[in-house]
Write a structure and sequence with these properties.
oxidoreductase; single chain; 2 domains; alpha/beta; Aldehyde Dehydrogenase, Chain A, domain 1; microsome; 268 residues; Aldehyde Dehydrogenase, Chain A, domain 2; two-stranded parallel sheet; Ald_DH/histidinol_DH; 7 strands; Aldehyde dehydrogenase family 3 member A2; 3-stranded antiparallel sheet
């Protein structure tokens, strides 16, 4: 415990120094991460084969290419993600500056899962580097069958008599990380989506929503907090800071807010 406190202390000191805040530093870190993945590709694939017997297109496509695509997207989009995002203003603030500024949360802990051990650590890591916190990584333990998420070659089957019963079965339990529905009836698919809650949904296939970089991937409730993939990783590890910079040349407009007031002035 003492060693962990020391590690966290050093991470916080590094963050407080401000060295990770400049965009140039973040992009250089992402480039270094890209270089590491490319240079260590064979070692990564060998580890996946040794630990999980995962090889071929599954290992390379999901674990390596998925991470490299995420890195390219983050490096390309980071300047626009990190820029202030203007928001709509009203009559009292029309000449003022109002925007959302994205600032790093600080020291964060990235926890992955063993079924996709590389990509499920690296994708949130990319978002965390882009947002500029300091990162620690660890691995989470396995979950219990039918009580939580199932990460293994197990497929429990529960029969139901109707769509209504299936929806009720889902809603009586904790919200899942993913929900899959198979049907030729698109109206039924839309009904299942609208009447249930889950981290994500794929209809007439499985897991494919997790490979689209423009869709957020993450859980809800017990199945996870936050989301990642591209912009969503950056947003998860950022604080949305509300900023309003008043223009003193229009201070006269503020008289509407100051006493003594009148209904006539409010209707102007």
């Amino acid at each position: 415990m003492e060693r962990m406190q020391q590690i966290v202390g050093r991470a916080r000191a590094a963050f407080n120094s401000g060295r990770s805040r400049p965009l140039e530093f973040r992009i250089q870190q992402l480039k270094a991460l890209e270089r590491m993945v490319q240079e260590k590709e064979k070692e990564i694939l060998a580890a996946l084969k040794a630990d999980l017997n995962k090889s071929g297109p599954d290992a390379y496509g999901h674990e390596i290419l998925g991470v490299l695509r995420e890195l390219v997207l983050a490096m390309e989009k980071l300047p626009s993600w990190a820029a202030p995002h203007p928001v709509k203003k009203d009559l009292l603030t029309m000449r003022d500056e109002a925007y959302i500024g994205y600032e790093p949360l600080g020291v964060v802990l990235v926890i992955g899962a063993w079924n996709y051990p590389f990509v499920l650590v690296m994708q949130p890591l990319i978002g965390a580097i882009a947002a500029a916190p300091t990162i620690l990584t660890d691995v989470s333990p396995e979950s219990k069958v039918m009580e939580e998420e199932i990460f293994g070659p197990v497929l429990p089957i529960v029969t139901v008599k109707s769509v209504e019963e299936a929806i009720e079965f889902i809603n009586l339990r904790e919200k899942p990380l993913a929900l899959y529905v198979f049907s030729n009836n698109k109206q039924l698919i839309r009904r299942v989506i609208s009447e249930t809650s889950s981290g994500g949904v794929t209809a007439n296939d499985v897991i494919m929503h997790s490979v689209l970089p423009d869709l957020p991937f993450g859980g809800v409730g017990h199945s996870g907090m936050g989301a990642y993939h591209g912009w969503y990783s950056f947003e998860t590890f950022s604080h949305r800071r509300a900023c309003l910079v008043k223009d003193l040349r229009l201070e006269v407009v503020n008289k509407l807010r100051y006493p003594p007031g009148s209904m006539e002035m409010m209707h102007l």
